[in-house]
Amino acid sequence: MRPIATILHRSLLLALLLPVAALAQQQTAVPSTTPPAPLTGAETDTSPHVLEPFLATYAVYKDGKLLGEATMQLVRQQAPRWRTDLVMHGTRGLMGFVGLNAEQSSVFDDLGEVYRPITQATVNKSVFTRKQTVGIYDWNSRAANWQGDIKESRRRPVPLQDGDMTGLLINLAVIRDAAPGKTLDYRFVDDGRVRDHRYVVADERESITVAGMPYNAMKATRSKDNEDTIIWVVRNVPSPIRMLKRENGKDVYDLRLVEYKGVE
Predict the structure, then answer these.
(1) Distance separating alpha carbons of residues 163 and 13, to the nearest angstrom
(2) What is the pLDDT of residues 191-247, one digit of tens each?
(3) Strand pairing category for 250-263 and 242-247
(4) 43-86 pLDDT per residue, tens
(5) CA-CA distance, 152 to 16, in Å (whole number)?
(6) Which of 119, 152, 179, 232 shows the greatest Cβ crowding within 10 Å of its Cβ?
(7) Helices (runs of H) and strands (runs of E) counted in the chain
(8) DSSP 198
(9) How far is the CA of 97 from the CAs of 58, 60, 68, in angstroms?
């Protein structure tokens, strides 16, 4: 007979791994009430950042070649709870051939200056494999645990510190915190791993055109060993304008914003 704890853990795993794409379709898209921040006047906006639900669509590139599409969304739940999802679908090239799809979902509490993770679910699928993991952040015991298709060495509880975040939450935090010349320090606790993430925001804004619209974007860069992660963000745009990851000088993925909308 299986231990009751094992059955409960597996039930929780299945509950948290609802298809993120299906959840996105449940949201009703409406035109954003906050227009995209253009080149003119973006520098003068110093209003405090407030989370607002959104649904953003991205084109996914690698080395300049279009490989697929992605969606990012932020969903309001019962205060102070929110959920953010990122879904990538391969439609061209090797990604399309093997049917590669990746889904991530973080449930968290917005505590003002802190985005506190509650759960993190990840699913990586192809025509050949399916891997899924779930992380539970227990702030009462101040420990995080992961289950699913994860290495045994990463199943050990990870002690939690105030300010710990998942990768998805760090993306939102960069949007909230970025300012020209500022250094942003976060602690990444995800998938059984703990890493310090430091982003350095360029002193000058960078002109970047997305879907034919010019933006005056802040460029935040994290570099460690042979890996670079770059996020471009703009005031009044709730999702990143562009997200680029490089390893050994080669693009791993390049997400470029196509459009975003408010949701309710």
Answers:
(1) 25
(2) 999 999 999 999 999 998 877 888 899 999 999 888 999 999 998 899 999 999 999
(3) antiparallel
(4) 445 667 889 999 999 999 888 888 889 999 999 999 999 999 99
(5) 21
(6) 232
(7) 4, 17
(8) E
(9) 20, 15, 11
Burial class for 224, CB neighbours closer than 10 Å (0-12, 13-18, 19+): exposed
DSSP reduced 3-state for 54:
strand
Pairwise CA distance, residues 10 & 26, whole Å? 25
- Reply yes or no on whether the pLDDT at 177 is more than 80: yes
Report the residue count for the chain: 264
Model confidence pTM above 0.85:
no
3-state secondary structure of 47: coil
How deeply is 60 buried, as exposed, middle or buried, from its count of CB atoms within 10 A (0-12, 13-18, 19+)? buried
What is the residue type of 146?
A: W
Beta strands in the chain (DSSP E): 29-30, 54-62, 65-76, 81-90, 101-110, 115-125, 130-138, 143-148, 158-159, 164-165, 183-190, 193-201, 206-210, 213-224, 227-233, 242-247, 250-263
Host H or E run for residue 107: strand 101-110
* Rounded Cα–Cα distance for residues 73 and 67 (Å): 20
Phi-psi region of 116 (alpha: psi -120 to 50; beta: other; left: phi over 0): beta
Reported as half-sphere exposure (CB side, CA atoms, 13 A), residue 160 has a value of 20
Residue 182: DSSP 8-state:
-
Residue 213 has what pLDDT?
82
